[in-house]
Every structure is written in C-alpha cells, then in structure tokens.
Amino acid sequence: MTEYQAPRIQDNLYDAINGKWQQEAEIKPDRNSAGASTDLVLEIEKNLINDLKEALADVKDEPTDNFQKAALIFEKAKDFKRRDEEGIKPLLPRLEKLLAVKNLAELNDQIVDFALEGYSLPLEFGVMPDMDDATRHQVMFMSPGIILPDVTTYDDEEQSKPLLAVYQKMITELLSFTPLSTSQQEQFVKDTMAFDRLIVPFHLSNEEMAEIKNLDHPMPASELVLKVKELNLASILQTVFPVEPETVNVFDLNFVDNFSKVFNEETFSLWQHWAYVNELCAHSGILSQELRVIGSQYSMEISGQQELAPAERHAYNIANSVFDEPIGIHYGKKYFGPKAKADVTEMVKNLIRVYKKQIQSNSWLSESTKKMAVKKLDTMTIKMGYPDQAIPLYDLFTVKRSSSLCETLDDFSLISLKYSFARLDKPVDRTEWGMPAQMVNAQYDDSLNDITFPAAILQSPFYSVDASISANLGGAGATIGHEISHAFDNNGALFDELGNKKDWWQPEDYENFEKYTELMIKQFDGIPYAGGKINGKLVVSENIADNAGINAALQVLHESGDEDLAEFFKNYALSWRTKVRPELAKMLLSVDVHAPAELRTNIPVPNFPEWYEAFDVKPTDKMYRKPEDRLIIW
C-alpha cells in the first residue's frame, strides 16, 4: 500500500482529516461499515453482552425483571445446539395455518386472527399519532413491502437482475426445508416473485416517502372498506381495535385505489405463497444456524457483508431487537454520567436559545411566522440520556426457559401487536421515547415536537467531558443543532408546536422557504458517488438540518469566548468518519434520506464564512464557494 498523501484541508476537509484512516481501515467481515459511530457501537455491544452474561447467573425459569428477561432471550438465541435440533419445527404451525386457508372467503372469515398474529396481509396497518391531532392516535394503512430496495431499482436491470436472482435462490433454498413437494416449492417461488411485481406499480418510491405530505390521506373508514372490498377490512376495524375508528389515514393512496388489481380471487394463491415465503424469511434468523445462513444471503448481497455476526453478537442483536428499551435503561444507568448529561443539556438549551435569535433576526420571514417558529422552539421537549422507565409492554411479557426462541419471539410479537392496537383510544403519551439509550443516533419527532439524544451518542468523538468547547460543538453541537433544525426542514415545517400538521406560515414566507429548499436540492443533486448519483430530493430534509445545525453550533461557539474554528471544523469532519462497503454505498443512494458522510462534511461547510476564516480558504482552493452560491437557510 502506497503511503497516503493527505490533501490540503482547503481542498478536501473530509479526506484531510479522515483520508489516511479511510485508506487503512478494514471493515470487519461481519460488518458492512466502519467508523466513528461503528466504534461506539462495538464498545457498547461488548459491554452489554458482558452485562447480559452476568445477569444470567441470577435468572430464574420465568424472570420478572425486564433486563433478566432480555438475558434469558440472549441465552436462548445463543443456544444453537437447541436451535439446530429444532430446525424449522417451531415455525411449522404458522406455516400450516397459512396453507389451511383454501380460498379468499376462508381468509376473510379468519382475517382477525391473521391480523393479530402478524401474518403478511395484502394491506398493512398500524397505530400512530394522528398527523392532524397529535394528542390522539389513528390507524394508518400502507402497501406491503417489496423485495428490491426501491421501486426505481426494478427499472434498472443491471442492478435488479442479480439482486432478484439472489433473492430467488435464497427462498428456493429456504423452501427446501418445508414439507412442500419439489413442484410446490417451485410454484411458491414463481408466485412470490409474481405477487411482488403486482405490488410494485402502486408502491411509493423512497423519494416520495421522504416527504411526509405524501403520506397524509385521511378518509372515512367506510370509504377505505369499499376501496379494498376484496379484504374483510370491516372485521379488522370492528374487532382488532378497542374502538372502531371512524377515520383512518392511508399512506399510499394509489395502492388502495388499485387494490383489486393486486389482491382478488385470482391472485389469492399468489398472496398465500408470498405470505408463506415471508414467514420463512422473517423467521430464518431465529431458527437453526443453517437456516440463518441461507436466510441472510439477500441482505448480505445488498450490504456487501462477508460473514454473519458471531453467535454472541447475534444473540445480543436478537435480545436487543425485542427488549431494546429495558436494555437501554440498564445501559443509561450504568454508563451515562451525570456530568455529561448536565453539560449536554446546557448545550441543547444554548443551541435552542441561539436558534431563536437567528429566527428573530431572519430577513425573509414575516413577524407572524417568526412568532410561531419561536413558539415551536419554546415548546420543544428535550429527552436526554435514557427514559425514567420502560413502557408497560415489557411487563406484559413472560419469558419461559422451556419455550423455543422462535416461540418466545412470536409470543412477544403477538403481545406487542395487541399492545400497539390497544393504543387507539388512548391519548398519545408524550413521555415515551422513540430511541433506546444504547443506540448511537439522535432524532427529532414531528408529531411530538421533541428531540431525543440517547446516552450512546454522547461520547467521543461527538462529545467528551475532556474536550474543548470547540471540539464538542463541532461534534455533539452540530448533531444537536441538526435535530433541532428538523423542526424547520421541509417536513418539520408542516407541523406546529404541538405536533399537528397545520399551516402556520404566511404564504409568502413558505414560498421563500421552498425556494431555499430548491437551492439545497441543487447543492447535492447529481453529484457522482459510488457508481451512481445523489438524489437531491431524497436527501434534502437531512441536508437542511445539517446546514442549520452547523450554523447554530457556530453561533454558540462565537458566544463562548473560547472559539477555535479550526478545531470545530476538524471535529465536525472526524464525527463523520465512515467507511462502507461499495455494495451498501450504492444501495443507500436510492433508499437513504441521508447523504454519504463525505458529502455531509464537504458540501455544507463552504456555505459558512467561518470556514474561510478558519483555514484562509481562497478562490483557488477546491472547497471555495462563491459568495452568491453560499446557502444558509436558518
């Protein structure tokens, strides 16, 4: 390997800070990425695996403590001796129930059972906060998932053909473990692929789903019942929920308008065989090692991952997938210090205060819109570290040592579904967290107008009690500012201070905002990356938030009286240190609302005058942007 020659920082900030690491870093065979966030994840996993193993010493056959329940699931998941002995047997009752249904009429007679037991139906549904009244819940409906990462992938034969071939090979091998005859297995494969293609023309693209306004189609429940008359939706609405909803929300209107083309008496067997295959795919990772290996082929092809996670990490991932909140509370209490919580909470308050000042001095907003924006900031709730207690769901679930892993997780899914459906007639609980404490991430929730910073992300390089204020603002500060800014991105701007989808803008102000949004789209759109091009519309909400987050963090830094702009930008670049497998990088171009890390570093930074001051950036430097092309929205 030739010695890495770092570029000048004025020409490529990301590579100047991360390039040598990028060249030398190796992605572990059982991972699809490496970097700052991945390093934190590895450390967190190691600590929590040890904690779960320690907890097992005190675990009874039916523990009542939720962390001990998680530990028992962890133990079941790593018991491959039992899993291999059982093979596909734990799943057979679900598969047999599916095949026992002989026609559409029989399915509709049993539709409530199939809905409550989580089978793949031709119309998916769930309970979520009402977009138009965030104090209450609503039932939302959507089309089922599709095989390829995006509907646009089907049109790209060079990309779709090999992916579909891998998927077809995978399900063919999974079906060979079932009691089906060889000819039946072949038919199930054909029918699965055929039913998927029936869904695709009416399924939303990822670009469409990235805009919340495309997902809001409230209608009378009676109207939806008529639109999907082939399915006994009336029984679901009358029986599954504590009260029968009068209105519902439909995410993809085009799908329900064309529902009869997808699901009818003639396509019933296609649906049935597709649902059977979905059961196999969904459960393969919790059955035998052989089934786990086979069932991972497609996801590994997409991500480029070379090996499956070793047994202990696999077991941790399973326990964490169902008991993430109790595990997170354990993590927060044990590993998140009070000083870090106090420091970062103060940083959040400073960023919100600065954000208010920026809105009040904004040159293109009217006073009435400014007033509403400030009200939204004043109302915003901060969730820092970890929640005080887990939601009641986990107390409802009993983990029995005698049950198989598959039975245990299916039981949890059933209880979880019922718990979710039962929320319909209850007010939205604004104290609930959308992320567990051990997740290296952060979020803004439009419907709650709150920002969540799990304990896991409040570590180096994002934040350190020993780092300078410049470094911490370049890492955690920009991240916090980013999440605050989602309240005013192209999606968040549609919601008021209470989380209701409501027009609170003066028309001229919103027109100005849309013009700025278009300029942000243009800054990224079409940039070549990983054998494809950036879709500026897909990533615009995150890019607006990045831009505003940097600006807010810089303003707090100016007020600190101890600013080091160079250190700020260097740590900003360091926090984005990421290396992903080429296969994953290409796939993310069509599915991820976030731009690649390198571009999230190098594209927004030249918008700010502080960048030019920090490194004396000249017009001849590659990361120079003409003043008239610089963009600061908030």
From TrEMBL:
Record-linked Gene3D superfamilies: Collagenase (Catalytic Domain) (3.40.390.10), Neutral endopeptidase , domain2 (1.10.1380.10)
Stored PROSITE patterns: NEPRILYSIN (PS51885)
InterPro entries: MetalloPept_cat_dom_sf, Peptidase_M13, Peptidase_M13_C, Peptidase_M13_dom_2, Peptidase_M13_N
GO biological process terms on file: protein processing
Cofactor(s) this protein cannot do without: Zn(2+)
Record's GO cellular component terms: plasma membrane
Record keywords, A-Z: Hydrolase, Metal-binding, Metalloprotease, Protease, Zinc
Pfam family, one: Peptidase_M13
Record's protein name: Peptidase M13
Species of origin: Xylocopilactobacillus apis
